[in-house]
Design brief:
Strand content: 5-15%
Number of domains: 3
Shape: globular
CATH superfamily of the largest domain: HUPs
CATH topology of the largest domain: Rossmann fold
CATH class of the largest domain: Alpha Beta
Largest sheet: 6 strands, antiparallel
Radius of gyration: 24 Å
Oligomer: single chain
Number of strands: 17
Distance between the termini: 31 Å
Number of helices: 25
Structural class: alpha+beta
Length: 603
């Protein structure tokens, strides 16, 4: 994996400074390109063709590219291009991508199978052409103030410039609502994310941006639904196997994350059937309610992999390191164990396959079961049920039944997608209004909910929002801080719409999630792994808030509220209730801590 950066004027010093901020993404090589119109920078993590022939920025005729990602079907595309007369100088997918643009123009993005964020400087057309992969596996940020255009793999590369950056209050609301900043927003005004499935064209002469969407998931699902159901079911296993196998292509060592959950276990099992002594990786925690190491060891022994693991603690040094490298507020606490997992993985391999996206694609979240329950829950009992749930005290264990029940009842509402987002939320609208006062923006102004009323509409909503800007951002951040490339087989663009096109009963019912995935997994894994309760990859923030001096300081010291964005008195009310065991406000306080720390460091 790599880091890319650039802007629409010439400055060797500025582009080198940007590249320096991205060194962790590409420690193997660094390059810059300058002309009268632009500056481009690149840091390389060598995966394919480790020779200097893979150096970037890469040039061909009137084209220059900086690229981050992997195009898994590059060999197939290479053959097509060779038949058209193209000749190649390297074994990289970068060169294939560049010639694909030369041959097919911006439509080349529709031909790629993989993950990517790239910029092509087309001197003939005097444009910059930027593209982000279909589901947002690779990040791509840009800044535009009407004159200056800057882009990069990470926001910190953009903020290395001396540009006027103001906090975007809509982004602040998004963060406290969903614990990440979604859509095309970033924490700063004039800074944006290129959304998944989008191409951006920047006219260097006119200084104008045009954005086009090149892939529509809903249309792809509808196309798959025209295929006979029996044929779709028959092809599912082979499509999944091929998605895993093509993500093993590399000229460096490849391994797999193995948590012991069904997603990473199935991916590792598929690999182990064709590749002996394959390396798998996991971590354990001393707190038994959060530790799942025994399951990963069981799976490894069952499928015969070379398993590497360590017991690790997320102490304040690790926490501060993550926070100090955080581009913008990000509240998913599983970033910390994912970073530690990536750290031990990088000691052995350069590429790791991840089980992420299994929940969104195959229907694995408890909120999907909650959607089913809500269809039968009598609204007449809602007031009584809420009263009974409130009688249950807080717990320092992992996500409990009581927590789920309270959340289900608290945000029970009529509209399917809004209800789902509120179930996923940290601060609901009334809480967020208390916290943000005059800066409050209602939820309906933050996320569009126009995807329908069935389960697949909820899955699409999660793929566009939670998956793209929480889960995938977490994995990219954690892995890249360790110069590790993470690949996501469940986001294969042939597999995902195929699964989403299946009737609801193949994914979720009142009692079970991931039904079709479990059926496939039964050919590879023991029942005790397939049907064990879902645990997730979290950390004990309930306890940390009570014990950590660092967290307490940023929650209670009025100095850290001088940004005047948050209501200090309301934050103290939540803190005191949590400390005195009157309420479980851990997730809310975690976000306040994250925001105050980030704002203090970036003030």
């Amino acid at each position: 994996m790599c880091g890319i950066a650039g802007f629409n004027w010439t400055s060797k010093e500025a582009v080198e400074k940007m590249a320096d901020t991205l060194r962790h993404r590409g420690p193997d090589d660094r390059g810059i390109y300058l002309d009268a119109n632009i500056s481009l920078g690149h840091t390389r993590l060598s995966i394919l063709d480790l020779s200097p022939k893979g150096h970037q920025p890469m040039e061909s005729e009137n084209l220059v590219i900086v690229y981050n990602g992997e195009i898994y079907n590059f060999k197939e595309l290479k053959k097509q291009l060779e038949s058209k007369g193209y000749r190649f100088n390297s074994g990289t997918d970068t060169e294939v991508l560049l010639y694909s643009y030369h041959c097919w123009g911006p439509a080349c993005a529709e031909k790629f199978d993989g993950m990517w964020a790239f910029c092509i400087y087309d001197k003939t057309k005097n444009i910059l052409f930027l593209s982000r992969d279909r589901f947002g596996i690779k990040p791509l940020y840009y800044y535009f103030d009407g004159s200056k255009f800057i882009f990069a793999s990470e926001l910190k590369a953009i903020t290395s410039h001396n540009v006027n950056l103001k906090i975007d209050t809509q982004a602040v609301n998004f963060f406290f609502y969903q614990k990440y900043i979604g859509d095309n927003l970033t924490i700063f005004e004039n800074c944006f994310k290129l959304r998944p499935s989008e191409n951006l064209f920047f006219d260097l002469s006119q200084k104008k941006i045009r954005i086009e969407k090149y892939y529509h998931l809903e249309e792809d699902i509808a196309r798959h639904q025209t295929i006979p159901l029996a044929q779709r079911l028959e092809s599912l296993k082979s499509t999944l196997t091929e998605a895993v196998e093509e993500r093993l292509v590399a000229d460096v060592p490849v391994g797999s994350f193995l948590s012991g959950g069904i997603d990473s276990s199935l991916i590792s099992a598929i690999i182990s059937q064709r590749h002996k002594a394959f390396d798998t990786f996991s971590i354990g925690f001393k707190d038994e309610s959060y530790d799942e190491l025994k399951y990963s060891i069981l799976v490894s022994e069952y499928i015969h992999t070379q398993h590497h693991y360590e017991y690790m603690e997320v102490d304040e040094n690790v926490l501060k390191f993550i926070l100090d490298n955080m581009d913008e507020p990000f509240g998913d606490s599983s970033l910390l164990p994912t970073y530690l997992l990536s750290k031990i993985t990088r000691q052995k391999v350069t590429v790791a396959l991840s089980g992420d996206a299994g929940d969104e694609v195959f229907g694995g979240y408890d909120t999907y079961k909650a959607y089913k329950y809500a269809q039968y829950f009598p609204s007449a009992l809602l007031k009584l049920a809420r009263y009974c749930a409130d009688l249950i005290g807080p717990s320092d264990k992992k996500v409990t039944f009581a927590f789920k029940a309270k959340r289900f009842l608290r945000d029970f509402g009529a509209e399917v997608n809004r209800r789902h987002l509120d179930w996923m939320a940290t601060f609901n609208d009334p809480q967020r209004q208390k916290l943000l006062n005059q800066h409050f923006v209602p939820a309906e102004s933050l996320i569009r909910c126009d995807y329908g009323k069935d389960l697949v509409s909820i899955q699409i909503n999660d793929i566009h929002n939670y998956l793209a800007e929480d889960i995938l951002k977490k994995v990219d951040t954690a892995s890249m801080l360790n110069s590790l490339e993470a690949r996501v087989p469940f986001l294969d663009h042939q597999l995902l719409p195929l699964v989403l096109s299946l009737p609801e009963k193949y994914k979720v019912n009142l009692f079970e999630t991931k039904r079709i995935l479990k059926k496939i997994a039964s050919k590879y894994l023991p029942r005790k792994i397939i049907y064990r309760p879902k645990r997730g990859f979290t950390v004990p923030i309930y306890k940390w808030i009570k014990k950590s001096d660092l967290i307490r300081e940023f929650l209670t010291n009025r100095e850290f509220y001088e940004h005047n964005l948050l209501n200090y008195d309301y934050a103290q009310e939540m803190f005191n209730a949590h400390i005195n065991n009157r309420a479980d406000n851990a997730r809310h306080l975690w976000l306040i801590f994250i925001f105050n720390y980030w704002r203090h460091k970036n003030g």
